[in-house]
Amino acid sequence: MNAPAPVAGTGFVQGLPERIRLDLLARGQERAFARGQIIQQRGDEAKEFWYIESGSVQVGRYGLDGRLTLFALLGAGETFGELAFMGEFPRTVDAIAGSDCRLIRIGKSEFRSLMDADPAVTGLLLKTMALTVQDAFDLVEFSRSLSVPQRLALALSQLCGDQGNSARLTVTQQELADLVGVSRVSLGKALTRLQGDGVIEPGYGFVTIRDGAALRDLAGG
Fold first, then answer.
1. How far apart are CA 5 and CA 49, in angstroms?
2. How far apart are the first and last CA of the chain?
3. Whole-angstrom Cα distance, residue 20 to residue 208?
4. Which position among 33, 95, 171, 181 has the lowest Cβ density within 10 Å, counted as fewest Cβ atoms?
5. Residue 49, SS3?
């Protein structure tokens, strides 16, 4: 069984036809955020959604103790905030710059101008959003049957995106443990397993991918 495409609920813009995707991004406004800077907060009015040009974004929820429970670590080419934006309901998650990053802000005026320019866009947007949500459900169902090393491999392969067979990911072990949904101890054992197989090399605050092809094979079960 092959793993579903890495979406994390964020394949919306990438799933659009190229002409429409480029047009939409060209209408947006580029913004820069420094590592640790808050981009959106839970409960905010969803006035826009974001496309990541470079860097990484942490998506999760802050608890009463101030600790962030990480749901996803997103990279270049991914989007976030579109569900609340299109559904016109308050933000349900917090988003923080995981590193220095450049984003494209797409607000209501940019979105409407695209739809006004091409009536067929509305149907394509709805279809793409529906496929993105279905892919997310498929990914959750698929991951239930995986071992911890396989779930870690899946998370790492998603974070790699299109970087090829080697990459250096800026991510802590706690962030990975939150993503995989295991304790730090279980995460450490899985990292050791993948390191022993020659697939990765863990570091302080980062993970180096040595063999992206083997990582994807392991993630695919």
1. 21
2. 7
3. 35
4. 181
5. strand
Q: Tokens 């934006």 sit at which residue?
A: 85
Beta pairing class for 48-54 and 200-203: unpaired
With beta carbons less than 8 A apart as the criterion, state whether 218 and 1 touch. no
Residue 9, sorted as left (phi over 0), alpha (psi -120 to 50) or beta, turns out to be left
CA distances from 1 to 144, 146, 179 (A): 13, 11, 22
DSSP 48: E
List % helix, strand, coil for the chain (3-state, nearest 5).
Answer: 40, 25, 35
Q: Which two tokens stand for residue 91?
A: 């933000």
| Rounded distance between C-alpha atoms, residue 167 and residue 142, angstroms | 25
- Residue in this structure with the two tokens 């397993």, named with its chain if needed: 193
Q: pLDDT (tens digit, 9 = 90+) per residue, 152-189?
A: 888 888 777 666 677 788 788 888 888 788 899 999 99
What are 3's two structure tokens?
């793993």
pLDDT one-digit tens code per residue, 27-69 = 999 999 998 999 999 999 999 999 999 988 888 888 787 777 7
In terms of pTM, does the model score above 0.70? no
**Interior CA angle at 153 toward 1 and 5, to 5°?**
50
What burial class does residue 144 get, using C-beta atoms within 10 Å of its C-beta: 0-12 exposed, 13-18 middle, 19+ buried? Answer: exposed
